[in-house]
Amino acid sequence: MSNSFDLSGRVAVVTGASAGIGQGIALALAAAGADIVGVARRPMTETADRVSALGRRFLSVTADLATTAPIPSIVRDALAFGGRIDILVNNSGIIRRADSVDFSETDWDDVINVNLKSAFFLTQAVARPMLADGKGGKVINIASMLSFQGGIRVPSYTASKSGLAGLTRLLACEWAGKGINVNGIAPGYFATDNTQQLRDDPDRSAAILDRIPAGRWGRPEDCGGAAVFLASAAADYVHGVILPVDGGWLAR
């Protein structure tokens, strides 16, 4: 019987692949057989070495998605590397924290530009050749618990991740009939750079852990299985889903 989770021969672009959830997803896709194009502002030496150790190829593309300017070169480099792009994981994201009454326009724009604007226009750029050759592809947007909930002191992050969930559903509606699956993963509270402030606050950290039925912060590799599923033929009839990977947070 064929393995519907096998990604051999596929090329995946993963943004924010230098560490954290992006690195965890890149490694999971590579373990399933995909070659990886990592996109990040920071060096991706560790990710590259670990992908290579799995027997897969890795292309490092240094780019700052604070603007849309790098998008054409990201797509061009990925196509030159792999011939086509089969999978896109929009993982790059930043967060800014302040009371809403004090929140600055700069912090609003910076977060929206990375988390929502660049994610949309990179998806658009990747989808064009997918649509043109008729072979389809998979898009996975990394959403958040705040795609479902309000949160506190992160207005632009909540807006961006709620918007990304909405775009996931919109693009699924437009492209499902054209062979492109657009879905999302909503990580719960993960031990990453974005949650460092929360984990450093003993009271806030304890309150968060108390609500997670699994009793621990998520680890980057915890999103890997969901990503492999959504990137694979096993999910060919899955469109517009935001899949929580949250240790049971939403069930509480």
Task: Write a concise keyword list for the protein shown above.
8 helices, 252 residues, seven-stranded parallel beta sheet, alpha/beta, 15% strand, Rossmann fold
Short description:
With 252 residues, the protein is an alpha/beta fold. 42% of the residues lie in helices and 15% in strands.
Q: What topology emerges from the helices and strands here?
A:
Blueprint: E1 11-15, H1 20-31, E2 35-40, H2 45-53, E3 58-62, H3 71-82, E4 87-90, H4 105-133, E5 137-142, H5 155-175, E6 180-187, H6 196-200, H7 202-211, H8 224-231, E7 242-245
Parallel strand pairs: 1-2, 1-4, 2-3, 4-5, 5-6, 6-7
Helix pairs in contact: 1-8, 4-5
Can you give a write-up of this model?
- By secondary structure, this protein is α/β, with parallel strands linked by helices.
- It has one domain: Rossmann fold, CATH 3.40.50.720.
- It is 42% helix and 15% strand.
- The chain contains 8 helices and 7 strands.
- It has a 7-stranded parallel β-sheet, with helices on both faces.
- Strand 5, helix 5 and strand 6 form a beta-alpha-beta unit.
- Helix 4 packs parallel to helix 5.
- It is globular, with a radius of gyration of 17 Å.
- The N and C termini lie far apart (38 Å).
- The model has no long low-confidence stretch (mean pLDDT 96).
